[in-house]
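look at this stuff:

>
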Amino acid sequence: MLISDLFQETYWALSANKIRSFLTILGIVIGIGSVIAMISIGQGAQNSITSSIQSAGANLLTIIPGAQRGVGIQVSGGRGNATTLTESDATAISQNVSLVKTLSPELSRRYQVTAKGTNTNTQVTGALPAYLQVHNVQIDQGSFITSEQNTSLNKVAVLGPTTRDDLFGPGNDAIGQTIKISGQEFKVIGITLTKGGTGFNNPDDAIYVPLAAAEHFLAGDTTGYVSTLAVSVADQTSMDAAQNQITDLLLARHKISDPTLADFSIINQADIVASASTVTQTFTILLASVAGISLLVGGIGIMNMMLTTVTERTREIGLRKAIGAQKKDVTKQFLAEAVSLTFLGGLIGVGLGWLMTWAVQTFANIAAQISLFSILLAFGVSAAIGIIFGYYPARRAAKLNPIEALRYE
């Protein structure tokens, strides 16, 4: 049988029952579209979470006071409560750990902030000029804190754009204005560039003041205790080595011989990214597996249709075999019909998947990213379904006895 004849016969066979053919491929269309959309949403979420974590700074190690705990507790625990880290620890790390590129000692607490009859509760961070580089923060208006302002205990503040909008109204000029933090007046000297974020650690909803001013005027503590040491490592491959060196140095400085009794915790940004990626990958696989069930249902529908077609065309099959058609010719014919259904369903399904992804991005504001992998996977699965679920009906048709088939009523 010529390839052109095979395609022509397949077209005639599927066109003879357009509605049944459409209903048969509908399950494939929905399945392929759902798989592509779910994988796209999962990959988009993974990229969004990774970007959000990395936006806090490149190659970042975060050292916080308090006993070592799991990652989920480390992030929220101990910060601003325990007093086991000092500015002298920061100096020692900078001087003795060569892998450290930049280090930012910080004192962060939440305060009630007021300005011209408005108020907000936000995170106030005492920081040094190195904060900009370590946390990848950029200034949109004005300037950031200088070393001279920190040494002179100047009461100046840099606002995040969200905090600026809450206190002075969206887009209003806040440079030179005065705010009160816990009753202390601070002069606004700068506004940071929007980074995006939500929750308590939103970098846009924050205020930065000189570290010494935060210690003296807000915390009421001049002993040099800090709530965080943010360390930027020279490169990604050195993060584990830098973490180990910092751990050994701080254990020695704090006179702790047993590492399990350390009074500080180090959060490795790479570990957080890896954990987040694992969670989102598992989530993506789960979503794709659920969506893939409809592909299985669609495959069963194709098998059901092909078995029905074999029954309806028994006399035709008998006639073909009587005039010389071989088993392989009949097998090819019916297998081609099954694969054509799944291929057409896969093609339409890709379009549906793209449309679903676009709708999720546009109306639900959820990050999604269509990848070539998801499209190839969808087509591969649809082709496999066509072959697997179409093979049995095709073989059944090929095995029909031509004499019995011609007698079939």
Q: What stands out?
A: Confidence is low (pLDDT under 50) at residues 70-80. The longest helix spans residues 269-312.
